[in-house]
Specification:
This protein is α/β, with parallel strands linked by helices. The protein is 31% helix and 20% strand. The strands form eight sheets. The protein has an eight-stranded mixed sheet, with helices on both faces. A five-stranded mixed sheet has the order 21-20-24-22-23, covered by helices on one side. A two-stranded antiparallel ribbon has the order 1-2. The radius of gyration is 37 Å and the shape is globular.
Length: 584
């Protein structure tokens, strides 16, 4: 039964007939009459009066016959009777009857298409309301899965859509979760066993994932943690393993974030931490991850036993793969990092594949597994915020995601490693300056082109460069460290430390006279100064007059190019997320 059959098609919008039942909380279709009808309107009409016309109101059927009218509402029927009884005395010019005063003119009947649209609108309104309730329920469900940690001021305060994003991904070796007791060390609070600094460029075209070796000797700064009893400051530790930045002495992921910032100079926006169960459940959710082995592997510690070739791994087998180290490479943690990068690359490809994205079941299982397995900072502790972050990260094509490892050298104890500063500092500078490992060639060419016009010309010998260095940055001792580097590493012996500049500046500048242009070009080459940093004077230098180099807030460290290197240091290991590499 609809509005038309009740004789009120011209006055009732079917969309308005969906009403909320306060007793059930559900929307229901209201079929009751909104006003009593006359007996004549309730009488069963003849077939001819109930058949609906296929022609538009007021039109005629073929042959000039008037089409059959649909059933009329009571007000229309009584109005037509009044006009008939009035006869010609009430007619206007031409025998037409003017509308009776106080009575509304009959509205033209709505077409079938318009009524269909009205019904569609009503049904869609109902679906949207129901859908909104369902989405809210889903959000509530996934929100309840998430574990969050308030890291206080350890992060940036939240990522922004118009800026680069830095996420710290931490894999803890804590043996929590069903089935993980057999891996030993079950009572441990866990460590930062696997750590990636995931940098996503400002324009979302590329990303760099930097692995930080767990056995890297570094300094862990003081960190503030929040407990049930309030705020507690945990003292730092000098020259210890990086993995002790988490779990030990009550350190939370915020301590790891602070350690990474101190090590790399990169401020971390958020962290995501996963345990053993994350690997098992997420790989099962997507139907397994394909890995490749260049040789047979039978690792007694990780319990991975597979022949050479390609394998689709999930659950316990996937966990065994990422824990394997003694049977691959050199048998140490750096070799394990390499196969973890290969594994994560494959997982990214699988999650972004059409097989996963087009399968609602897999997507639900993946969301369920991820939210249950992940611990995140409170800044992204709601599924809506996590979704927003995921949408930003998803913009990056896997072919433009590069995995690399912090450059290190072996320590004398052969059990730990030390930072290779000569290679690590330029790599960190690339991240700080939002330079991707996947686009370094273009950046390098752009840098050359931009400086070509200004820096074109001869270069002086390093021993002929004369420069006074001022510290206009907020880095203590920047001028002296630069002088030491220039004299000891670059052969610029005629350089002097002039201490602090009159005021701090944002950008490093080099002021030089026209007859010092060759010296300026040489120093710009050595320090990686952009063309904008060079300020040419109008008068030639006289006698022993030196150029003036003022270090700004963009100064990172002596020897680190001001603009950030356009090229990755030689020997830095890189793996593209779009390529499959077989573990050796």
């Amino acid at each position: 039964m609809d509005a038309q059959s009740r004789g009120r098609a011209d006055e009732i919008d079917p969309a308005d007939q969906w009403v909320l039942n306060p007793q059930t909380g559900n929307y229901e279709l209201r079929l009751e009459q909104s006003a009593p009808q006359s007996s004549s309107s309730r009488a069963t009409p003849s077939r001819s009066t109930t058949r609906r016309s296929k022609n538009a109101p007021g039109s005629q059927a073929p042959g000039g016959k008037e089409p059959a009218r649909g059933r009329e509402v009571p007000s229309q029927r009584s109005r037509r009777s009044d006009n008939a009884s009035g006869g010609a005395s009430g007619s206007g010019p031409g025998g037409t009857t003017p509308p009776t005063a106080g009575r509304r003119k009959r509205k033209p009947a709505k077409s079938g298409k318009k009524k269909a649209l009205m019904w569609t609108g009503g049904v869609m309104s109902f679906i949207l309301v129901a859908g909104a309730v369902a989405v809210y329920a889903i959000y509530q469900h996934f929100d309840s899965n998430l574990n969050t940690v308030d890291v206080g001021g350890a992060g940036s305060g939240g990522f922004k859509k118009d800026q680069a994003v830095n996420i710290l991904v931490i894999g803890t070796d804590k043996r929590s979760g069903a089935g993980n007791e057999g891996y030993g060390d079950s009572g441990s609070a866990g460590h930062a066993d696997t750590t990636f600094l995931f940098h996503v460029s400002k324009d979302r075209t590329n990303a760099t994932a930097v692995s930080i070796p767990r056995d890297l000797i570094t300094d862990i700064p003081d960190c503030e943690t929040k407990t049930e009893d309030g705020t507690k400051v945990i003292g730092g530790t000098q020259r210890t393993r990086f993995n002790e930045s988490l779990g030990q002495e009550g350190r939370d992921p915020g301590c790891t974030m602070r350690t990474v910032k101190q090590l790399t100079g990169v401020t971390v926006d958020h962290f995501m931490m996963a345990d053993f169960n994350a690997v098992k459940t997420m790989t099962s959710a997507v139907g397994g991850v394909e890995v490749c082995l260049a040789k047979d592997i039978n690792d007694k510690d990780s319990k991975l036993n597979l022949p050479a070739g390609k394998h689709n791994l999930e659950g316990e087998d996937a966990l065994a793969f990422v824990r394997t180290r003694h049977s691959v490479g050199f048998g140490g943690d750096l070799s394990r990092i390499e196969i973890q990068q290969q594994f994560l690359s494959s997982l990214i490809r699988k999650m972004k594949s059409s097989d996963t994205l087009s399968d609602p079941g897999k997507m639900w299982d993946l969301a369920e597994a991820a939210t249950k397995a992940l611990t995140v900072d409170s800044g992204i502790g709601k599924i809506s915020r996590l979704r927003d972050l995921g949408m930003e990260l998803a913009k990056v094509n896997p072919k433009n995601i590069t995995f690399t490892t912090v450059p290190v050298v072996d320590n004398t104890d052969k059990a730990t490693v030390l930072l290779n500063e000569a290679k690590a500092k330029p790599l960190f500078a690339m991240i700080q300056n939002d330079t991707s490992l996947t686009e370094v060639k273009q950046k390098e060419q752009d840098a050359k082109n931009a400086q070509a016009a200004l820096l074109k010309g001869p270069r002086a010998d390093a021993s002929a460069v004369r420069v006074d260095v001022y510290n206009g940055s907020d880095t203590r001792g920047a001028a002296q460290s630069t002088i030491s580097w220039l004299q000891n590493e670059m052969g610029v012996f005629k350089s002097s430390n002039k201490s602090n500049a009159p005021q701090q500046i944002a950008k490093t500048t080099l002021e030089y006279a026209p007859n010092q242009a060759d010296q300026a070009r040489k120093l710009a080459d050595m320090m990686g100064l952009p063309a904008a940093a060079l300020k040419r004077g109008t008068k030639d230098a006289e006698g022993l007059q030196a150029m003036t180099l003022t270090l700004g807030a963009d100064f990172e460290d002596a020897g680190v190019p001001i603009t950030g290197p356009a090229k990755a240091p030689e020997g830095v290991q890189k793996v593209g997320a779009d390529k499959q590499v077989c573990a050796k």
